[in-house]
């Protein structure tokens, strides 16, 4: 098809630069610089989609970001499918493939359009009322049906192959919006030498100058002036221009989020180029130059393809050289539509008639239209349109009733006036104020260092806007530290002046009429729906909005909010400010997840921490588990072994010979200074003053409320030096906890805290052969039981490198923890591994570690405790220094509930059938025959198969557990109830003889 | 994202570098063990949660690592001022009337 609606000589595009594209599989051509919308219109295509609820045929309403109708699916390849792309924003590229949405089987015949006929069923609040009954039908019937029918486009089903970039930037003056006002503000600010950033959502700067043919600035046509000014700004080192960039969110302290589209307009983007870039800009001053958005007229069947905003038709003509029809009607309550009619008429398009709701429109534009021979019907309304897939007629009637006249048209322009874009101002927490005279919300009280200029500030006329913007730019720059501006102020020599307009429903959509007069095109909300919401009892606009969904689509009500508000106010017989304006929220236009996520995907989503021995474990077939950010070795399966077999072998080998375990992830903190012991006394329940240097102690840390916060073995290296270990997961918060007390509660103590978690690699060598394995490699330390008993620490050398050697055990067998500087971790591990091989030792992972400690009843904080467990509950009251007068948690421990009877206590649980392994988290009851809900008296915290015990073992927290030894209790599961016997928590080597075995 | 002035680093840094640490000026008694249940409840559980000016603790955790105090408005989120830990609660706030 030829571009039969492209008018030779009109617009700014170069006709020779043609591009091919497809829409619903049909091939078309467009021109470089087109949007998908302008290219479709050049080919006479208005029908581009079906509406959300009623599946009504829809065309292109606008020329910009406010578009509610023309949402299409753009597909580059199988993984690059973007739904709900606004055709008015998507720039054309050669080979672009677009498809329409929300229709089946085709756009011209859509089975879903039956909703339109059945529309009485789908009035506002329908979902709330109808689908609530019967309740059972919701899950099986209503919800699946609604979900399938809901939404417009189809989400892509493959991972996004593109990548997205992100930048932080700082500037003195950030100008949001690159129309005449924004450019003038940027010029003034830039001249002072401060850093200026100017952004605009369009590909080219110029804003409304794109269509405002009557503008003349500094002797040039408005658009030409804008391009000259942009060229000048672009040459300045202190200015950054960001076209194709939408300021979508305005946050605290002038922090603004911008999304820059980098490749969506390119035919074949560089595979390495980011698709979008997220800018997070901190500006000393922000200038809001967001312009205004034209409103449609609310009348019956105002949604047929071919019905369009007047300014949009004008932009298609004056910028893209496209006529939106051959016989065009106009319906307006505002002068700006006259300018559109005049431009079209001059370009050779027939104007069937201008229908003006106002009684006596006057002014230069009205006179000019009349002089061009355009028929003007004032004091009249368009009460209906005809046509199916495209408008074919408009029916005109005197606004107070009377004879109806049908006029044939193939397009209809409409304008109810302009709504200042106060979205970003409102997001900045500024308070809008209603201007009674002009019936619009304007920036009122500012909350941040920003200023609105031009149309978004309600400033009418180009000259006044440029004047205001220039002054604001100069002042913002000066306030932010710039020099006085010296550039010449742009001189506006000619501009158009558009007065007023109307809000709410026009006569054709009066309260007595059962018609579809659309207020919100994207969500299919009509004037009737809003009236119904009021009749149903909604009083605030926030309720009306939610009941009708007016303004809740992805266009966020850019064209519909004010009309909806006016209709609600009218129905309530209240003034608009009394009904209220909904709050504007980010994002201003939809932002891709990609832009928000940026590089934080896959491996870069979160840091991965690996120990010094990670490579060895990987090479030896370890399976890893994630513990926080750490990759920990879970188990080391031999060929043919599953997890169960590997863990059983590891557990057996450790107790028979020995095992090597990578304990490097344990948190480690060095507490140093003359007051180190005093500090330790305050932070841990245990006594530390009398612990000899060279000895270790198991420490328990509480919060002030008396509950266990962390635990770990602490070695005293010297009177003024403690090597503290924490749980893997607790490392950072324990450090924070200690720093908090040291800095704010005990600042008089002379102590230094240093995190040494990553400085020391830790190799646990556990089992009866552990001493034999390390002995040949250790120098300068006497390893005999007499010289180095259980729970002691020595400094010396291993394999020639420094070591802090702990004799300690988390298995109950003789054991050592070899600390070496992390860089030597793998080399020392390998040397120990070689020695271990001689004794039949194995490498074991976290699973075997868990089983082995559970066999001994050693708790894991965070698994066997949950933040409500006291030392007494866990059987650790021996670790509390009885003579101490203060430590963190000392008062909490005596709180009434913490000393009351009936607390849950740590116990062992043995299933009567030794083969059954309980589920961790399973609940315990006394009487399995009681009625549901049963009284739950405890739960399982740890549960394993113990190869060494030849049976299952479990730990649990049980009400009055220690008084229930020998009782039989029950663990109800979905398929059966399991009998358990309550025992002590130690299952293996109860006397603890193996520590020296 | 807020900009927060660290009184130790003496410059404004992005909120990402900081961590909130609860209400300020709740001193831990020196005779903890002797506290009544009522006093412990006030000390540990009860917080002011005002609409308006609040005194808070913050930590420049990804910076100098120091804890400090801040005065903030819970309505606007704005920081009124920050000061070092241990300094007295400011009686007169910048920008406030007499
Ligand atoms: Zn700091």
From TrEMBL, chain A:
<dbReference type="Pfam" id="PF01571">
    <property type="entry name" value="GCV_T"/>
</dbReference>
<dbReference type="InterPro" id="IPR041854">
    <property type="entry name" value="BFD-like_2Fe2S-bd_dom_sf"/>
</dbReference>
<dbReference type="InterPro" id="IPR029043">
    <property type="entry name" value="GcvT/YgfZ_C"/>
</dbReference>
<dbReference type="InterPro" id="IPR013977">
    <property type="entry name" value="GcvT_C"/>
</dbReference>
<feature type="domain" description="GCVT N-terminal">
    <location>
        <begin position="613"/>
        <end position="884"/>
    </location>
</feature>
<dbReference type="InterPro" id="IPR042204">
    <property type="entry name" value="2Fe-2S-bd_N"/>
</dbReference>
<dbReference type="InterPro" id="IPR028896">
    <property type="entry name" value="GcvT/YgfZ/DmdA"/>
</dbReference>
<feature type="domain" description="Aminomethyltransferase C-terminal">
    <location>
        <begin position="904"/>
        <end position="989"/>
    </location>
</feature>
<dbReference type="InterPro" id="IPR006222">
    <property type="entry name" value="GCVT_N"/>
</dbReference>
<protein>
    <submittedName>
        <fullName>Sarcosine oxidase subunit alpha</fullName>
    </submittedName>
</protein>
<dbReference type="Pfam" id="PF07992">
    <property type="entry name" value="Pyr_redox_2"/>
</dbReference>
<dbReference type="InterPro" id="IPR023753">
    <property type="entry name" value="FAD/NAD-binding_dom"/>
</dbReference>
<dbReference type="GO" id="GO:0008115">
    <property type="term" value="F:sarcosine oxidase activity"/>
</dbReference>
<feature type="domain" description="SoxA A3">
    <location>
        <begin position="516"/>
        <end position="596"/>
    </location>
</feature>
<dbReference type="Pfam" id="PF17806">
    <property type="entry name" value="SO_alpha_A3"/>
</dbReference>
<comment type="similarity">
    <text>Belongs to the GcvT family.</text>
</comment>
<dbReference type="Pfam" id="PF13510">
    <property type="entry name" value="Fer2_4"/>
</dbReference>
<dbReference type="InterPro" id="IPR041117">
    <property type="entry name" value="SoxA_A3"/>
</dbReference>
<dbReference type="InterPro" id="IPR036188">
    <property type="entry name" value="FAD/NAD-bd_sf"/>
</dbReference>
<dbReference type="InterPro" id="IPR006277">
    <property type="entry name" value="Sarcosine_oxidase_asu"/>
</dbReference>
<dbReference type="Pfam" id="PF08669">
    <property type="entry name" value="GCV_T_C"/>
</dbReference>
<keyword id="KW-0560">Oxidoreductase</keyword>
TrEMBL record, chain B:
<dbReference type="GO" id="GO:0008115">
    <property type="term" value="F:sarcosine oxidase activity"/>
</dbReference>
<dbReference type="GO" id="GO:0046653">
    <property type="term" value="P:tetrahydrofolate metabolic process"/>
</dbReference>
<dbReference type="InterPro" id="IPR006279">
    <property type="entry name" value="SoxD"/>
</dbReference>
<protein>
    <submittedName>
        <fullName>Sarcosine oxidase subunit delta family protein</fullName>
    </submittedName>
</protein>
<dbReference type="InterPro" id="IPR038561">
    <property type="entry name" value="SoxD_sf"/>
</dbReference>
<dbReference type="Pfam" id="PF04267">
    <property type="entry name" value="SoxD"/>
</dbReference>
């Amino acid at each position: 098809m030829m571009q039969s609606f492209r008018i030779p000589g009109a617009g700014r595009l170069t006709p020779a630069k043609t591009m091919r594209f497809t829409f619903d599989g049909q091939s078309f051509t467009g021109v470089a610089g087109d949007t998908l919308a302008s290219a479709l219109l050049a080919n006479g295509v208005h029908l581009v989609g079906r509406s959300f609820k009623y599946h009504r045929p829809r065309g292109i309403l606008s020329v910009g970001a406010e578009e509610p109708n023309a949402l299409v699916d753009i597909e580059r390849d199988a993984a690059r499918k973007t739904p709900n792309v606004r055709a008015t924003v998507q720039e054309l590229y050669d080979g672009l493939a677009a498809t329409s949405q929300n229709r089946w089987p085709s756009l011209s015949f859509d089975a879903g359009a039956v909703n339109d006929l059945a529309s009485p069923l789908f009035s506002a609040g329908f979902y709330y009322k109808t689908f609530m009954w019967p309740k059972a039908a919701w899950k099986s019937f209503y919800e699946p049906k609604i979900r399938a029918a809901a939404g417009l486009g189809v989400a892509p089903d493959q991972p996004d192959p593109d990548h997205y970039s992100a930048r932080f930037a700082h500037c003195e003056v950030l100008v949001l919006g690159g129309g005449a006002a924004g450019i003038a503000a940027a010029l003034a600010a830039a001249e002072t030498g401060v850093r200026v950033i100017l952004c605009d959502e369009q590909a080219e700067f110029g804003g409304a100058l794109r269509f405002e043919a009557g503008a003349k600035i500094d002797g040039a046509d408005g658009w030409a002036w804008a391009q000259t000014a942009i060229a000048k700004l672009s040459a300045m080192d202190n200015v950054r221009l960001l076209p194709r960039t939408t300021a979508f969110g305005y946050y605290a302290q002038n922090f603004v989020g911008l999304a820059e589209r980098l490749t969506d307009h390119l035919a074949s983007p560089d595979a390495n180029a980011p698709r979008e870039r997220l800018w997070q800009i901190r500006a000393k001053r922000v200038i809001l130059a967001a312009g205004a958005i034209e409103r449609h007229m609310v009348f019956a069947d105002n949604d047929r393809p071919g019905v369009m905003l007047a300014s949009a038709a004008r932009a298609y003509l004056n910028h893209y050289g496209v006529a939106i029809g051959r016989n065009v009607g106009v319906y307006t309550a505002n002068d700006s539509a006259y300018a559109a009619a005049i431009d079209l008429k001059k370009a050779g398009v027939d104007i069937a008639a201008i229908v003006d709701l106002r009684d006596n429109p006057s002014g230069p534009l009205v006179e000019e239209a009349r002089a061009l021979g355009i028929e003007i019907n004032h004091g009249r309304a368009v009460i209906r349109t005809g046509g199916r897939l495209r408008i074919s007629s408009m029916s005109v009637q005197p606004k107070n009733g009377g004879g109806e006249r049908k006029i044939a048209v193939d397009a209809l322009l409409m304008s109810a006036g302009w709504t200042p874009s106060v979205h970003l101002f409102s997001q900045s927490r500024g308070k809008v104020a209603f201007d009674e005279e002009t019936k619009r919300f304007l920036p009122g009280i500012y909350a941040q260092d920003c200023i609105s200029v031009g149309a978004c500030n309600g400033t009418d006329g180009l000259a006044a806007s440029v004047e205001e913007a220039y002054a604001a730019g100069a002042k913002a720059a000066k306030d932010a530290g710039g020099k006085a501006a010296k550039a010449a102020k742009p001189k506006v020599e000619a501009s158009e002046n558009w007065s007023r307009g109307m809000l709410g429903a026009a006569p054709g959509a009066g309260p007595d009429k059962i018609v579809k007069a659309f207020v919100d095109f994207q969500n299919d909300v009509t004037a009737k729906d809003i009236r119904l919401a009021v009749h149903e009892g909604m009083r605030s606009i926030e309720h009306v909005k939610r009941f009708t969904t007016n303004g809740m689509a992805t266009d966020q009500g850019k064209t519909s909010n004010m009309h909806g508000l006016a209709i609600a106010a009218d129905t309530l017989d209240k003034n608009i400010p009394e009904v209220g304006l909904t709050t504007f929220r980010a994002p201003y236009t939809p932002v891709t997840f990609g832009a928000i996520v940026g590089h934080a995907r896959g491996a870069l989503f979160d840091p991965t921490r690996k120990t010094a021995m990670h490579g060895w474990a990987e090479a030896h077939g370890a399976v890893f588990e994630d513990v926080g950010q750490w990759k920990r070795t879970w188990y080391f399966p031999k060929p043919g072994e599953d997890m169960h077999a590997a863990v059983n072998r590891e557990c057996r080998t450790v107790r028979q010979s020995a095992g090597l375990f990578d304990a490097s992830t344990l948190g480690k903190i060095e507490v140093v200074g003359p007051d180190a012991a005093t500090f330790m006394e305050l932070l841990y329940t245990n006594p530390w003053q009398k612990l000899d240097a060279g000895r270790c102690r198991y420490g328990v840390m509480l919060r002030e409320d008396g509950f266990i916060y962390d635990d770990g073995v602490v070695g005293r290296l010297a009177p003024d030096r403690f090597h503290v270990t924490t749980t893997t997961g607790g490392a950072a918060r324990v450090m924070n906890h200690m720093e908090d007390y040291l800095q704010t509660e005990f600042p008089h103590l002379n102590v230094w805290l240093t995190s040494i978690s990553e400085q020391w690699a830790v190799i646990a060598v556990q089992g009866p052969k552990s001493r034999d394995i390390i002995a040949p490699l250790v120098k300068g330390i006497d390893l005999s039981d007499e010289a180095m008993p259980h729970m002691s620490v020595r400094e010396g050398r291993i394999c020639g490198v420094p070591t802090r050697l702990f004799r300690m055990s988390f298995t109950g067998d003789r054991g050592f923890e070899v600390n070496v500087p992390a860089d030597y971790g793998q080399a020392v591990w390998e040397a120990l591994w070689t020695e271990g091989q001689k004794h039949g030792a194995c490498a074991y992972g976290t699973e075997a570690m868990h089983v082995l400690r559970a066999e001994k009843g050693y708790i894991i904080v965070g698994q066997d405790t949950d933040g409500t467990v006291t030392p007494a509950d866990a059987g650790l009251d021996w670790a509390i220094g009885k003579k101490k007068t203060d430590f963190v948690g000392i008062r909490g421990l005596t709180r009434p509930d913490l000393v009351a009877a009936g607390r849950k206590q740590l116990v062992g649980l043995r299933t009567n059938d030794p083969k059954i392994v309980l589920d961790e988290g399973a609940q315990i009851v006394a009487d399995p025959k009681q009625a549901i809900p049963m009284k739950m008296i405890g739960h399982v915290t740890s549960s394993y198969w113990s190869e060494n015990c030849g049976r299952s073992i479990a730990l649990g927290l049980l009400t009055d557990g220690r008084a229930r030894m020998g009782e039989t209790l029950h663990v109800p599961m979905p398929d059966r109830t399991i009998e358990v016997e309550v025992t002590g928590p130690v299952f293996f080597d109860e006397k603890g003889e193996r520590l020296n075995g | 994202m807020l900009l927060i002035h660290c009184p130790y680093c003496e410059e404004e840094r992005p909120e990402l570098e900081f961590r909130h640490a609860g209400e300020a000026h709740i001193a831990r008694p020196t005779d903890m063990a002797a506290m009544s249940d009522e006093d412990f409840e006030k000390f540990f559980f009860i917080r002011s949660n005002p609409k308006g000016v609040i005194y808070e603790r913050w930590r420049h955790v990804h910076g100098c690592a120091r804890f400090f105090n801040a005065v903030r408005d819970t309505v606007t989120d704005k920081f009124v001022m920050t000061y070092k830990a241990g300094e007295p609660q400011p009686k007169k706030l910048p920008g406030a009337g007499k």
